[in-house]
Write a structure and sequence with these properties.
Blueprint: H1 4-18, H2 23-28, E1 34-43, E2 49-60, E3 66-73, H3 78-94, E4 100-107, H4 115-129, E5 138-142, H5 148-162, H6 183-201, E6 210-214, H7 218-229, E7 233-239, E8 242-245, H8 252-261, H9 274-278, E9 282-284, H10 286-290, E10 296-299, E11 318-321, H11 329-337, E12 342-343, H12 345-348, H13 351-365, H14 371-396, H15 400-418, H16 422-425
Parallel strand pairs: 3-4, 3-5, 6-7, 6-10, 10-11, 11-12
Antiparallel strand pairs: 1-2, 2-4, 7-8, 8-9
The structure holds nicotinamide-adenine-dinucleotide.
Residues 142-145, 187, 214-220, 238-240, 268, 286, 300-302, 322-324, 349, 352 line the site of nicotinamide-adenine-dinucleotide (NAD).
Length: 428
Amino acid sequence: MNSIFSDAQKRLVEVFRHTALTDDVQEKLKHPKLSMCVSIPVRMDDGSLKIFTGYRVQFDDTRGPTKGGIRYHPNVSLDEVTSLSFWMTIKCAVMNLPFGGAKGGVIVNPKKLSRLELERLSRGYIRAIADIIGPKRDIPAPDVYTNATIMGWMADEYAQIKRQQLPGVITGKPVHLNGSFGRESATGRGALHVLQEWIDLKKCHAEDLSIAIQGFGNAGYYFAKLAHEAGFRIVAVADSQGAIYSREGLDPTKLMQHKQEHKELGTMLYCDGSVCDLQHYHKLSGSELLELDVDVLVLAALENQIDKHNADNIKAGQILEIANGPVTSAADEILAKNGIPVLPDVLANAGGVTVSYFEWVQNRAGYYWPEEKVNARLKKCITREATAIFSLADEKKISLRTAAYLQGVNRIAGAISQQGTREYFLNT
Ligand code: NAD
């Protein structure tokens, strides 16, 4: 079987070559601390009862309470959730946030549920995992096909179970329900800071660069909007229904307006409304978008989009991973051989968890920051870590991914070692 988790773990082999880690640390990074599988009964609108399967995996909590989003998707599996929880562990350490990693998921196509069914499912999921989450234990957040509204329902359900307001149990909440300003755009904004830092290093300018984006949800849309405002030319965008292309460039805000007019989650098609009529562009297939000759290919949908079968066809100058795990380890090798740098997920999409951390801090302090402060702190944190990773990669002549992992793993290893290792106990 093709396991996402075993593929994710392959990255560690390369990392272990560049840092001397004790067996204890290596062993600990191979196994999730806790994996929970739950059945969630939901009363459907037609009166029937449907049971959904959900997961929550807490990978490692050595550096602090675990943190990670909740995904609603028909292809959710324990293997996928475990991999995502592993990447969250690395990512929180890469950003030096005082968190370990976790992830959750429910096997469901949310586009097929009514709003009330979605609310019952979301509340049911929280009831099922309430015993293992909490502001000091494990803090969920949004991921694919979950959003601020769903986080608001979940925080409310948790408050009802615990009979007290504990907004720090979940992040990505609506601003009026103790959410943080700037959280919604944080993942896209952080990714843009990373890209900007990278092109500055390469002495390139936004105005000269074309971008194709796979995925036009929370992360992909905000990245597209902010990149467009910064002067980049967005030439192609894809969502799960298809892709569009315009050599002159697309306006992400207009595309989103078009989507909003067709509001239900299920209608994501671009080409059935006014925006398509207004702009000159061609329709593309999802794979054609991936193989466009652009300066930057942005992956902001799901994992395993570039693998050994299509990696050789990629013509982009560089890849920005906003999705988690969109490039497999086999594809990494092919891209490296072809000289295509990959700005890795554990850095490029870390803006979301960074502002989630700010939200948790604000919830616990009961003191809320203005949006400018959130955005400025995000820029400072992510730019600092990106610069360190770029220098490390250059210094050791390793890929950006290996450098990012090295930075994260060294911090996790420090924490694990200071709790005591074999060497410590044997006094060697
Ligand atoms: P979302 O549900 O808001 O959007 C997902 C988008 O991907 C949608 O536009 C959907 O149509 C598109 N999509 C799905 N399958 C596709 C396919 N085969 N081809 C092209 N497009 C496809 O989800 P999101 O929150 O934007 O998350 C996207 C990715 O970013 C995920 O990998 C997620 O784990 C990662 N991420 C998100 C955040 C966050 O804060 N939202 C943070 C870090 C990482």
